[in-house]
Write a structure and sequence with these properties.
By secondary structure, this protein is mainly α. Helix content is 44%, strand content 5%. The strands form five sheets. It has a two-stranded antiparallel ribbon. Strands 2-8 form a two-stranded antiparallel sheet. The chain has a two-stranded antiparallel sheet with strand order 4-7. Helix 4 runs antiparallel to helix 5 (124-149). The chain is globular and about 70 Å long.
Length: 581
């Protein structure tokens, strides 16, 4: 692999560690930074040693998973991005950084596990709880890898591979092998959580730390994803997905947050435990990589006072807004806003937010754009930026005052601590519903789909179909980095439907919409007659090969076995690898 220096100088609440350079898939903490003789002596140090797996290694994947998860899927407008038109190649900077970040997450988890196993002093409960957390993060890294790149190598023990000198000749294994490895890893995590009676924990405030049910929820999603891998749906995998999901629903103690919008706020976001797995960031840049930077990429210019936002030209696609039953050319006064997920996902004309800019009495979308001086916070210069007529909401925290009130900490430029949710209980409800529906239990599926809809303010469905659940997943999880991976798993057994749907999406923008919005703000009159839809990004060149992204080019240069057309090995995962602790 291309030599790449990644530095993770971690804060006092994490571990001091640096990534050393290797021409391999083994980006890992330098073991001379710390070892079992000078750390891991107490239960507290065990938790400190695993804390950084919740943020730093994922930093470069954080910024790119929106492009894969949301831009490729047709949920987010990003202009002429290769992720819009399916032309991403192995030299794409975001793709390269995402790949290295996932391998870093795996390598850091491996190192933490190795050091914890060698530690003396902490209780077995603390030691093995933290190992189970690291195993869950390791499984998450591989789950992203296999759904992004398809066949990938297994790096079970980076230190052993370095000692053997085989890192430049390592081969990919089949997707089926990778899924089996993920399942084996999560089973071990659950075994350890269970053995040491850590079914649930509030080790950090409000369920934020991983536990048995977080690992079980992820395993449920893995089984649902693997179910179609052979080209037809596997009933045993569907049954496992349903059984695991139902156990989480019935026994985890979690419940849906009463307010959908509160899930994405800084304060109290996990009071009910809905957010089973999240990246938990810190509002600081020392070290760089511990912080959330998504507001910078997704918010409009002037949204905060740090001069660090440039995402005004990006927002929900015309197609996503249509899925919510609305359009930028519809009169806001007549819009149906009963499904609160629409407003919690995309700002449109007429929208206000009481949880942004609380020091200014709330945030008014059009006032921000067209009344810069009155708001006194800056703004996008008196013109609407995103040509779809909507701007992003999720992943934003607001201005400095909002962040301070929620956390007691002032954010820095490109450095906030807004959590990024990877797996929520509502997702588990929909996993259960889909698995049960595909096993001919529509009545049971309907119950859980309607529970998700009820929380969103949407009316109950009288009956449920696969397409209903497919759409419900899109509305519930929009802009959370997940939608493309739904297409990937469906493409395993229904490729044509995925291609046809992606080609039919409205991925483009409107002409002359700014004039309509400005007149509506200034005169309270609505006339969208002159607005024209520009279809330049519609009918993208999506093919069967689009559902697997290429490895970074430099990886292939150093090891030809990483090429897209290189045949992966098929191995017996459980005979080859084990967690014998």
């Amino acid at each position: 692999m291309k030599i790449k220096n990644l530095i993770y100088a971690l804060s006092a609440l994490t571990m001091l560690a640096a990534l050393s350079s290797c021409s391999d898939f083994l980006h890992r903490p330098a073991e001379d930074s710390y070892n079992t003789s000078n750390f891991y002596k107490t239960d507290t140090q065990c938790e400190q040693g695993v804390n950084y797996l919740y943020n730093s290694p994922w930093y470069d994947f954080q910024r790119g998973f929106i492009k894969i998860g949301e831009v490729m899927s047709g949920n987010m407008f990003w202009g002429a991005s290769p992720y819009t038109n399916f032309t991403t190649n192995g030299t794409d900077e975001d793709l390269v950084n995402m790949s290295y970040s996932l391998w870093a997450a795996n390598a850091h988890a491996n190192t933490v596990i190795k050091n914890l196993l060698a530690s003396e002093g902490p209780s077995d409960k603390a030691k093995y709880k933290c190992i189970a957390e690291a195993l869950t993060w390791k499984a998450m890294a591989y789950f992203f890898m296999v759904r992004t790149f398809g066949p990938v190598p297994i790096v079970h023990d980076g230190s052993a591979m370095i000692a053997e000198g085989g890192y430049n000749s390592i081969s990919k294994v089949t997707k089926a092998n990778v899924y089996e490895y993920i399942i084996m890893t999560l089973e071990k995590a659950m075994e350890l959580f269970d053995e040491y009676d850590i079914k649930t924990t509030s080790g950090w405030t409000n369920y934020e730390r991983l536990d048995y049910y977080a690992a079980e929820a992820l395993l449920s999603k893995v089984y649902l994803t693997r179910a179609g891998l052979s080209g037809t749906l596997d009933n045993d995998d569907l049954d496992m997905a349903a059984s695991l999901a139902k156990d989480v629903i019935d026994h985890s103690g979690r419940s849906l947050m009463p307010s959908y919008e509160d899930v994405f706020r800084l304060s109290g976001f996990n009071a009910t435990g809905e957010c089973l797995i999240s990246w938990l960031w810190k509002a600081g840049r020392d070290p760089w990589t511990q912080q959330n930077t998504l507001q910078s990429d997704l918010a409009m210019v002037g949204f905060d006072e740090n001069g660090d936002v440039w995402g005004g030209w990006r927002g929900p696609t015309v197609d996503l807004m249509a899925a919510f039953g609305t359009s930028a050319i519809d009169n806001p006064a007549a819009r149906d806003n009963s499904d609160i997920r629409r407003k919690a996902t995309g700002m449109m004309a007429g929208d206000t937010y009481d949880y942004f800019w609380t020091d200014k009495g709330g945030f008014d979308f059009l006032k921000f754009i067209y009344d810069k001086d009155d708001y006194g916070k800056g703004g996008p210069g008196g013109a609407m930026q995103c040509p779809t007529g909507a701007n992003n909401v999720k992943h934003l925290y607001g201005d400095n005052y909002d962040h301070e009130q929620a956390t007691g900490v002032t954010p820095l430029s490109m450095a906030a601590q807004t959590p990024t949710h990877l797996l929520r209980l509502s997702d588990v409800y929909l996993i259960y519903a889909e698995a049960k529906l595909l096993r001919d239990n529509a009545a049971e599926a309907l119950i859980y789909v309607n529970m998700v809809r009820a929380r969103a303010g949407a009316p109950d469905l009288a009956a449920v179909t696969f397409n209903d659940i497919w759409k419900e997943r899109r509305l519930e999880l929009a802009h959370e980095g997940d939608r493309w991976y739904d297409y990937v798993r469906r493409s395993y057994y229904d490729m044509a439907a995925c291609i046809n749907e992606l080609k039919a999406q409205k991925r483009s923008s409107w002409y002359h919409l700014d004039d309509v919005y400005k007149k509506y703000y200034e005169e309270n009159t609505w006339d969208a007659g002159a607005v024209i839809y520009n279809d330049m990004y519609d009918n993208p060149n999506v093919t069967a090969s689009s559902f697997t992204l290429p490895f970074p080019t430099m990886d292939v240069v150093f090891n030809g076995k990483m090429a897209s057309d290189a045949e992966p090995e098929n191995i017996d995962i459980r005979a080859t690898y084990s967690y014998d602790f």
